[in-house]
């Protein structure tokens, strides 16, 4: 930094699943290793070993790392901007565990591991929730007694903000260069976690995730939107505890609950082979995305561009096709040939004569975190 030159990059995937993989790239070196990675701590330690490896590493020792940037999912109302890690910051992240039980504990553990591996580096936290501070009260307040908002901060906060911020800014820049309207953007982030954001004049005005990162779109293991009556039925009639129901909705539902698989690649492969559960699950998933796109077009009185991003959003032509089916009346005309072509750069997948733009915008949360971390310490 500030040249934004990538010295090394990589990915740990299928954490806690059979066949965990670590991908590493530095210069001409490209490696993929199948390593047993039962949890995030093991994954981070494996990454640091690669970074400091004598043959393929990019730093001689831990002292050469000056700043470590961390993504933390939930900042509540305590954090509206990027901050340097202190004991107080860590305590507040810990206090928010109940609101993001799948994320904040791992995020904090990542900070603690990084502190031990890079003891002389500054640790910086970028919060997913900070981007959504611009949402109006009509979008973030729930229709429950007002005392819960005033006394206990019960409200929608929003997540995947680092990604939505990065891709929307890239999309606006792209549209402006083409002389196309860019006032009203819908950003669809589809990964193991999924969310959709309505962005007007560069500011988030509505978002699918809420007080915790569990509702909205269907996700890998999370149910997304669900009638609260189901929760009370499971507890009162079927005898589940509240903790068991919470575990079901967060870790056993979503695409896993519908198909037995949480990885979209596995689901699409089995759907193509004739698995009816997997085929139906893809349509249920895409249908929910379509409903949110329609509601956000209504909220903004139109749309200039719909963005697809993150692992599934960038790579699954199947989900994009289902989500945009029969949307021509809103000006969204998908070019199926373009939709089937993979790429690593921002690109349109709408038909040439379409009124509205449909874009695939590769996200780069790491770069966004690096930019914000660099700006803070300088």
Automatic annotation (TrEMBL):
Substrate binds at residue 71. This is Acetate kinase. Its cofactor is Mg(2+); Mn(2+). One of its GO terms (biological process) is acetyl-CoA biosynthetic process. Keywords: ATP-binding, Cytoplasm, Kinase, Magnesium, Metal-binding, Nucleotide-binding, Transferase. It holds the Pfam family Acetate_kinase. InterPro entries: Ac/propionate_kinase, Aliphatic_acid_kin_short-chain, Aliphatic_acid_kinase_CS, ATPase_NBD. It is found in: Cytoplasm. Belongs to the acetokinase family. Its EC number is 2.7.2.1. Mg(2+). Can also accept Mn(2+). NCBIfam families: ackA. Mg(2+) binds at residue 365. Homodimer. It is an enzyme of class 2 (transferase). SUPFAM superfamilies: Actin-like ATPase domain. Pathway: Metabolic intermediate biosynthesis; acetyl-CoA biosynthesis; acetyl-CoA from acetate: step 1/2. It comes from the Bacteria. The active site is at 128 (proton donor/acceptor). PANTHER family: ACETATE KINASE, ACETATE KINASE-RELATED. The record marks 160, 222 as: Transition state stabilizer. One of its GO terms (molecular function) is acetate kinase activity. It comes from Zunongwangia atlantica 22II14-10F7.
